[in-house]
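[[Sequence with tokens]]
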Amino acid sequence: MSRLAVDEGARLDWTNDLHILRLWGMHDRSDYETVSILYVDIDQSPNWPHLQQAIRSRFLRDGRRISFKSLNDSRRSRALVPFLEATNHLTGVLFTVAIRKALGKFCGGDQISSDPRSKTLQLDPGWKSLPFERMLRIVHVVSLMMGKFSQPQQNIIWISDEDEIFGNHRRMMDLKRMLDSFSSHYVSHPLGQLGLGTTIIDEADRADEDLNSITDLACGAVAEMVTALLRECPDYIPSALAIPFRGSVSRKTEIIYDWFEAGSSGSLRRGMVLFRAQSITADDGVPHELPLNTAHLYGIKSYDTVRG
């Protein structure tokens, strides 16, 4: 699995406003849900706007968006490799989390009313449990990244698809409250302003849409790849061990995942982390899966994590 090439305690030299792009991916045939976070400094990516517009002018003049599910379209398919190559000129981090669907909820409860944070932060009681769970997972990952990469007094602009989490103003304010709460545990310095928005406000250049497409492609390819890999090799694979993979994935996933794994090329760093239940062998010699409140986490570091 890909590892973020960042030393402990290291910080990227970002001094401008930071943009966060986020996409949550659900694929019916995948065993995993994925969320990708793109943490990028546009001002430190001077070549990106020119390359992005050149790709649009050549392949996507009608304004269509690149997405994982739409790559059967010939124009989008021809644009894929040039688009991925252009992303290497972005200064930032693309971080993807894959969570086994069978793990269920491990951030929130079945009802938002039973969550102590609901009353304390005055959250909208209309949240359903699954979108609330996803919101908590996303906010936790974003808070971790803010703690790792942000600088004092930096403004952060979070742009997302207009989905169930960013669906209306009340939901966005709930997300902001949760982000303030979570990030206070990881960010030790004062930040500037936090702006929230969706791609519906995107300008004619489709810049925000194309940045969001990066997270969409990562979500789709990682979901398909880890599902195929772990169906073929269900046991834990140590990072120092190479084994043959006899499974198969789509051509688009091969292309995107090769780009994703080449995380050291260019200034866009890529990494992923995977949550799944860990199998153990009991005294009777029969393999058992640990209860769903225990997940195995690997990708950046290998260790067991237990929710409390």
